[in-house]
Amino acid sequence: MVPDDLAQFACSLRSLWALDVLNLLYRSRPREWTVPDVTRELRSSDTLVEQTLALLEGRGLVARDASGLARYQFADPATDDLVARLMELYKVRPVALIDLIYSDTNQKLRILSNAFRLKKD
């Protein structure tokens, strides 16, 4: 069972890629990463990494300098503690977090598809 605060936080990341990028930056702090370096490390694409870094930056979890270097940065100590607990859970129970993130996505898709379902009169 994933604690409610971690579940809510993990789902707010919206994708496994965001969790992986956050994990990479968190575990390697205070290292600063270029987009191509993150892309190579995670075997991703520059576009996906850029989008993910923008999401994490918007959440106050990543700081980027003028040259585009990215590093983990927390907004406040409570957020840092939440990220630490999430990364520990990801290390020991990755499938639980993966299932949680994808089940949240699937639920949103079901809600959307139900909105377009034809009703019988």
List keywords for this structure.
Arc Repressor Mutant, subunit A, 66% helix, 121 residues, 5% strand, two-stranded antiparallel sheet, mainly alpha
Largest sheet: 2 strands, antiparallel
Instruction: List the secondary-structure elements in sequence, H or E.
Output: HHHHEEHH
How many β-strands, per DSSP? 2
Q: How much of the sequence is in beta strands?
A: under 5%
Kindly name the structural category: mainly alpha
| CA-based shape | globular
- Total domains: 1
CATH architecture assignment: Orthogonal Bundle
> So how many helices?
6
CATH topology: Arc Repressor Mutant, subunit A
Helix content range: 55-70%
Strand order of the largest sheet: 1-2
Quick description:
The protein is mainly α and 121 residues long. 66% of the residues lie in helices and 5% in strands.
Structure characterization notes:
- With 121 residues, this protein is mostly helical.
- Strands 1-2 form a two-stranded antiparallel sheet.
- It has a single domain, classed as Winged helix-like DNA-binding domain superfamily/Winged helix DNA-binding domain (Arc Repressor Mutant, subunit A, Orthogonal Bundle).
- Residues 105-114 have low confidence and may be disordered.
- The longest helix is centred in the C-terminal third of the chain and has 22 residues, at 94-115.
- A hairpin with a 5-residue loop joins strand 1 and strand 2.
- It contains 6 helices and 2 strands.
- The chain is globular and about 40 Å long.
